[in-house]
Amino acid sequence: PPDPCEVAKELAKAGIDLHIHTIGFDVGGKARKQLSCIAEVTGGTYTDAPDAGTLTGALNRVTQRALRKYEVVGTPVRGTPQPDGAPLVKPGAYQDRMRTNEIRHYTIDVPAGWTLHATATYIAPHLSGVISLVVTRVRPDGEDCLPAGSEVRSADDPIVSAVLHWAAPAGPSGRCNSPGKQIIGVKTTEGPANAGPGEADAAMELLWGLEPP
Q1: Running DSSP on this structure, what letter comes out for residue 192?
Q2: Minimal CA–CA distance to 124: which of 99, 153, 155, 149?
Q3: Nearest in space to 47 (alpha carbons), one of 73, 66, 71
Q4: With helix as H, strand as E and coil as C, how does 30-57 read?
């Protein structure tokens, strides 16, 4: 097959607007040179990741960088600040707006044995500093079923994306582990944990997916 760097050069010469960010995970000299070249000729970045810890950080950085010009799509929906009354959503793309240090709730029906994939992407160009996004499941009484949730922090970047995967059991197996209607909470924070709500709301894209057994 052709050298991947040569292919990248051909794409760039053809005027295709494609920026490729590459990461070399424990790679040798030849692979490192190819990956670096691909990034350079397409206007992307190359990051060397010799171990798993470095790889995690590198993936977060390049993902946020690639999302900088991201525009939300989907059906408008308005999540509720409390679990009670959370709107029922079906698989698909939705968009909402919220301020930092707030939470929005949504309801989705997850059949027994099915897996829920919930993704939230928060775009707040007016913000700076550390932004944290959490996607979690909660009970109607507000109890957090996933204390750690799925949290992603973005430092000095106004875009952050977090994903939650949860497989519904075949039947009830505890207060927080039963199939059926699930309440999903999406929360954003900026700066100190005790900070109040941000002054301006920002766009958030929500993707709901259901995978059969």
Answers
A1: S
A2: 99
A3: 66
A4: HHHHHHHHHHHHHCCCEEEECCHHHHHH
Full pLDDT tens readout for the chain, 213 residues: 889 999 999 998 998 888 888 999 989 889 999 999 999 998 888 888 888 888 877 787 777 666 666 778 899 999 999 999 999 999 999 999 998 889 999 999 999 999 999 999 888 766 666 678 889 999 988 888 886 666 776 655 677 888 899 999 988 888 888 999 999 999 988 765 445 565 578 899 999 999 999
Amino acid at 154: S
Question: CA-to-CA distance for 164 and 137, rounded, in angstroms?
Answer: 9
State the sign of the Cα–Cα–Cα–Cα dihedral 82, 87, 89, 93.
negative
Report the predicted TM-score, pTM, of the whole model to 2 decimal places: 0.68
What is the rounded CA–CA span in Å between residue 169 and residue 137? 15
